[in-house]
Amino acid sequence: MWSHAGIIWTGETYNSVVKLTFARGASLEDPSGLFNSSLEGDTRRAIDVHDGDKIDEKARKALARAAVALNTKPAT
Questions:
Q1: Using H for helix, E for strand and C for coil, what is the string for the chain?
Q2: For FRET with 15, which of 21, 51, 63, 73 sits at 20 to 30 Å CA-CA?
Q3: d(CA 39, CA 65)
Q4: What is the pTM of this model?
Q5: Could you give the CA distance from residue 15 to residue 66 in angstroms, rounded to a whole number?
Q6: In degrees to the nearest 10, what's the CA dihedral of 21, 23, 27, 33?
Q7: Is the Cβ–Cβ distance between 60 and 1 less than 8 Å?
Q8: Closest CA to 56 of 22, 27, 33
Q9: What pLDDT, in 10s, does the model give residues 8-45?
């Protein structure tokens, strides 16, 4: 689990995939289209990484920064 003022994402390993689940991913912009799993939910979004996949690190870092910003945003 990665966190800053709340959960940013969790990482789970399965037989054929590593799943990075962003706790509040449905509230994040994803212009690079990294989210490819758990798209139907109201809260979470995930990135399923299969063996041999390459992740756009710039886009992943942008999602992480956006998640931190969301976690640290004052409640309205």
A1: CEECCCEEEEEEECCCCEEEEECCHHHCCCCCCCCCECCCCCCCEEEEECCCCCCCHHHHHHHHHHHHHHHHCCCC
A2: 63
A3: 20
A4: 0.89
A5: 29
A6: -10
A7: no
A8: 33
A9: 999 999 999 999 999 999 999 999 999 999 999 899 99
